[in-house]
Every structure is written in structure tokens, then in C-alpha cells.
Amino acid sequence: MNLQDKMMFYGVSLGKRYSKKERYLFAKAIEDMCKEMNIDFKISEHNTKRYNVENIIAGDLEKAEYVISAPYDTPTASLIKCSYYPFHTKMTLTNEKNDLIVRFVVSAIFFILGGLSLYLRTNIWWIVAAVILVLTGIYFLIPQSNRFNFNRFSASVALASDVLERCEGKKVAVVFCDKVCKGYDGYRLLKNDVKEHQKLIVLDALASGEKLVVAHNGYQENLAELLSKDLNAINKKYDGDKTENNIFAVLGNALFMTSGIIYENDLIVEKTRSSKDIDIDLNRLQKISDTVVKYIKG
Q1: Distance between the two ends of the chain, CA-based, in angstroms?
Q2: In the chain, which residue ranges form alpha helices assigned H by DSSP?
Q3: Band (242; pLDDT cuts 50, 70, 90)
Q4: What share of the chain is helix, strand, coil (3-state, %, to 5)?
Q5: Which residues of 145-183 are buried (b: 16+ CB within 10 A; e: fewer)?
Q6: How far apart are CA 166 and CA 267, in angstroms?
Q7: Pick from 204, 207, 157, 201: which is nearest to 27 by CA?
Q8: pLDDT, tens digit (0-9, with 9 covering 90-100), for 12-26
Q9: pTM (two decimals)
Q10: d(CA 2, CA 34)
């Protein structure tokens, strides 16, 4: 498959990776790809009290010179506008909390209307209405997998698999990280699996966005400069206390690639957690793949 085919596959056919079944189907697809390429397939796990974190590893991570990482979990659909802030985790989580509050309020309204219908019932139709209202309230409380997730993170998954195939599994391994939409649990597990001397490139929201950013924490500064120049991207260095609320607090040696719009010194990825997350700049995505492959192959 070329990159466009991969984008259709991971962005549409396997575009939802939230439920247990959806995640299983994705893992099976990666396993099948590894078998075709005759490379290693492994799942790195960490169990917590609330959930399991399962990073999917394609290739020989022990021997890899380059490690490409892409998140694979997808978010729930939101009732309100929920933008994603790649370098400001607290802002992303604030949006998540606001959406939860709205969900509880909407559900409470339906529950109250359902109770009122029962109180005022004069015939069977009042009871039917009450049941429908209560069920609707319950529906809004249950998280629903978002249908399209090009920026979070189907394009990154397609890009990572494309780089892996074009490098024929040599010098490179790919780690598809779990539990990134609501935190850094997958990245924390990745930190334990990656060696300090390995060159780690994290692919974030890359489907579309006005500005392409290559960020780092001082590590891989030369590679960041080369990639930024070839891709006409912003070369952003984070250091000191500026790393406390972003990925570099967990993966200090990573080179982080993402895109979005810049507003008040923050990079923002819009339309996430909605049916509008379907924009794709395929030409730019292909150029990113070409450029990353060029430097991996040397």
C-alpha cells in the first residue's frame, strides 16, 4: 500500500481505536504487516488499577538505531468544541473536563424530564416518554468513540507504518503508543523500552494544520534543524521549566513532530474529537515520510 492507501485503511477502515474490539483489530493489522515484512511483533504492557497500557512494537526495538513512535488510541466524541494542545497538556485536560461537565448537565436535564413525565403520567404514553428520556440521558453519559480521527492520530499511524515499510524494517522500529489521548501513559511505558542512545522521533498530529513544528529538548538538535529546513517547519526548542507540562517531561530525548495553528504562543489542533477531523494534507504527509526515510537510510 502507498501512503494514500494506508491513510484510507488506518483513517477510515480502522479509524476508531477506542473500544477493546477496535484496538484488537488494529493490533491484528499491525501483526499482519509485521508478518508480511518478516519483522518482530511485540506488545509491551503495563497494568494499572484502572486500565491496561498496551504499546505495539513493530520491528527489532533492541537493535534499532531509530525509533519512530505514533500514538494509536483515539478519543471519544465531544459535545463541545475540544481543541488539542500538543505542548500544553493542562489546556487539553481542561477541555476534557468541560466536556464532562456539559455531559452531566445534559444527562441531568433528561433525567429530570423523565421523572417529570412519570409524575404527570395520565396514560401509557407518558411512561413511554419517561423511558425514552431516561435512556437518552444514559446515552449522553456513556463515552462514544469518535468516528474520524485524522489528526488524532490516524495520519501518524499511517506515516509511521509507511516509514517502516520503506526502510524495510532496517535500522528502525516503530512503537504505536497507547493511552496518549488523555495523558502520557503510553509514552511513560515507551521511555522504559527505549535506550538513551537511540534516536526517537514522535509523530503527533500531522494530518493537517497551518504550521508544521519540529520540537526538541536539545537532544537531536542537528536532526531537528535538518528536518525543519527540508520541511519548511518551525524548529522549536523547549528547555528548563517550559518542559514541565508537555511531552519532554516524559521523553526528554525525543524529537517531536506536530502541526496546527498558532494562537497566543500556543500551538492548537482544531476540530479534534468531532466528525470534522477529516482534513488531510496528503502532499505534506508524503514529504514528511520522504524526508524522514532519507535521514534514516543516510
Answers
A1: 24
A2: 3-8, 20-37, 89-119, 124-141, 155-166, 185-193, 221-231, 282-297
A3: low
A4: 45, 20, 35
A5: ebebbbbbbbbbbbbbbbbbbbbebebbbbbbbbbbbee
A6: 30
A7: 157
A8: 999 999 999 999 999
A9: 0.94
A10: 16
